[in-house]
Amino acid sequence: MSAFSEEALCSIKNQTLVLWGENDRLFPIEVAAKAVAVMPDAKLLRIKDAGHLSMMDQPAVFNRAVLNFLLDKMEH
After folding, report:
1. What amino acid positions are annotated as catalytic residues?
2. pLDDT in tens, 20-76
């Protein structure tokens, strides 16, 4: 499934945002979807027109997603 075991992914208790480039040729988007499916409180954001380095391919989208995620955590 991923570099992390299902047991390890299930043990993550914090809310998690997984950012993934839809065109990642190293690890397909299905890997992210399977990982998020077993994590207790995870959300997957698929980044269009981005590959494995989505933060470089779509920096504004990536940064906005991280900022919104962190700001939401501060409000709660």
Report:
1. 52
2. 999 999 999 999 999 999 999 999 999 999 999 999 999 999 999 999 999 998 887
pTM attached to this predicted model:
0.86
CA distances from 21 to 13, 15, 32, 49, 70 (A): 24, 20, 10, 7, 20
Q: Which of 44, 26, 22, 24 is nearest to 34 (CA)?
A: 44
